[in-house]
Amino acid sequence: MPTLSVVVPSHNRADLLRRCLASVVRHAPAGAEVIVVDDASPGGAVSAAAAEFAGVRVVRLGRRGGFCAAANAGTAAAAGDVVELLNDDTEVEAGWAEAALAWFTDTAVGAVAPLTLRLDGEPSPVIDSAGDRYFVGGIAGKRGRGEPVGPEYLYARTVFGASASSAFYRRDALRQVGGFPEEFGAYFEDVDLSFRLHWAGFQVVYEPASRVWHRVSASYGRPHRRLLEQQARNEERVFWRNLPGRVLWRALPLHLAVLAAKAWRRWRAGELRPWLCGKLRVLGESAAVMRHRRRLRALGAAGAGGWGLDERFWNRDRRAAVTSCRA
After folding, report:
1. Which of 88, 174, 211, 225 is the most buried (most CB within 10 A)?
2. Residue 37 lies in a domain
3. Within 13 Å of residue 211, how many CA atoms lie on the same side as its CB?
4. Dist. CA 184–CA 38, nearest whole Å
């Protein structure tokens, strides 16, 4: 069985971090290491909370870098064959790690998405994410979000991506594709990473026997101008940076339709200005986008299968369009 490093980035939620670490320490497999990345928390509150748990290592950043920088710092400090990124507002179940680790005996698997359930007081389990999907017009989404745990989500299968709130990654694969994009800060960084994993020839697998509970309400603060702009910019970056050329140009009409629909919704919500500013800021990043696309071509040339993301992932999660990984 591959060895595991659990990395928990945290900035200022020591109360939630304690609950997360209590579940991880209780259920982690033998030999697993747990690393908390203190993203410059005020007064070192995160480091102090992590120190309450025996065996938990702390990596403290001198100044706040955001989720991506903290995740990369934790990955760099990790010794395990597999790294799981956990939000500090998550809790894990017994056996959550073993079910996911079993997939990494297959060297083609670069990431595993657990079944993430909402921990927000619903009377019955509700899905937060059963793996990620991506529509070619430029829409990233979580499979099953807001739905009950029905039969469709109880079998393992390949998926487009894994949510970084709880995803398992092959550490060497993360290094090969360059880790999380620190220029993103947060939001859509895991979608960008999933694209690069596929470019490098890796597969992403959804494993429902690996279960993580997520306090979704704690992850999203009140919308404000800077947050809306950042989300809009990163969403647009993903589209232009990662789609292969043969798909990109065919996708443009769909993308324009998606932008029009989202602009209408943002206008009605009174959020059009920051959303539009975020989208337009990508126009000034054309040189960076081209450099990124050159790196993708190099990844594709070095990958076992070249461009490993086939057209089935462009569909809207039609069950008939995918093949189950396991009987």
Report:
1. 88
2. no
3. 16
4. 19
> Between the CA of residue 279 and those of 192, 220, 228, 234, 265, what are the distances in Å?
16, 21, 10, 8, 15
What is the structure's pLDDT at 129? 95
Mean per-residue pLDDT for 283-304? Answer: 85
62-103 pLDDT, tens digit each: 999 999 999 999 999 999 999 999 999 999 999 999 999 999
Residues facing 38 on adjacent strands: 10, 60
**Does the residue 208 lie in any domain?**
no
Count other Cβ atoms within 10 Å, centred on residue 209.
15
Residues spanned by the domain of 274: 225-306
Phi-psi region of 95 (alpha: psi -120 to 50; beta: other; left: phi over 0): left
Is 207 among the domain residues? no
Q: Write the pLDDT tens digit of every residue in 194-234.
A: 999 999 999 999 999 999 999 986 555 566 788 999 999 99
User: How many domains does the chain fold into?
Assistant: 1
